[in-house]
Amino acid sequence: MSGRGARRPGSPTALRDQNRARVVAELRRQGQATQAELARATGLAPATISNIVRDLAEVGSLVIEKRSGKRNCVRLAGGSGFVVGLDHGHRHLTVGVSDLSHRVVARTRTELPVGVSAAQSMAHARRLLDAALAQAGVERAAVVGAAMGLPAPIDRTTGRVGSPSILPGWVGVDASALADAALELPVGVVVDNDANLGALAEHQWGAGVGTTDMVYLKLSDGVGAGLIVDGRLYSGVAGTAGEIGHTTVEEFGAVCRCGNRGCLETLVSARSVVSLLAPTAGELTIEEVVGRALAGDRAFARVLDDVGRQVGAAVAGLCSILNPELLVLGGELAQAERILIPAIGQVVDRCGVPSAAAALRIRPAVLGARTHLLGAIARAIDNADRSVFIS
């Protein structure tokens, strides 16, 4: 097709659309930014940025927020669409609705019974989603992106939940197809491992802002790592990179849910910690374990210190291979940061390549219980229907 408005490669119209897409992509990543920040991030000239912002604001795709004493900020308009994020944990399910400037406009949550099936979980998800959309006043047709996190590896070659999984009812399930059928959204649901989503969230808005190479380590009922390499999420050929919890640390140790023996997870998961202390202290929560350790209980502090040292040995190997600048500690056990971080650091210093160990900073996650939901929202925004932004 030819004509004045045709989008031929290299034509003014095609170049305009490409530049608009770059600006929109950056706003999707940052949530909001000044025009000067957009120019630096995209490499476009300030005048080009100014024209794009003016044009998109005129058609209602962008909002310019005037701030006294500061430069005006630009964000994507709420009318441009909304995204849905789902955080599916071992014992909980959280659903959030966000606009494209990363503002969560509704959030719903429920506890899940032990042994719930995948189909039953998605029935809960549908109920929570309906409630969240109603709370936000958002129609289903306005949803332009959706993502769900699971505490399980997702095999990219098949789309199915792999083993090992802390959710046995999900193994072998095509999670995206199941979510699509249950939620009935106008867009497909992207599914990823929750540690990957934690890495995305902490990299964009949390402890990892400004870093290019970092590891997000989730220590909870399951143990996994999300890897940011050269500023991007790295998940490997099949999507299972970062399964640090299933590296063998004791060849003849306890049998792990993955079928192997002596995996790191058998020693450092939240369940392992409470089971070690149960014979003398009874059933406790991780919060109670951490509280007693910090209050000076020697046995509790010893168990958490041992967790840090076991994790440190695994992290030392990871650092020697990837040489990240930052390790972000997340998950339930991150409550014990005052004990875990020094213990991890000592073993990394002793066992890691000296230059890699010296370069590594260890910090607790800062987004707390919101981390994996925000990661799902970030993933949904990244995969949102692009046509709604530049048409």
Automatic annotation (TrEMBL):
Pfam families membership: DUF7343, ROK
InterPro entries on file: ArsR-like_HTH, ATPase_NBD, Cro/C1-type_HTH, DUF7343, ROK, ROK_cs, WH-like_DNA-bd_sf, WH_DNA-bd_sf
Residue span(s) of domain HTH cro/C1-type: 34-66
Recorded family membership: Belongs to the ROK (NagC/XylR) family.
Protein name listed in UniProt: ROK family protein
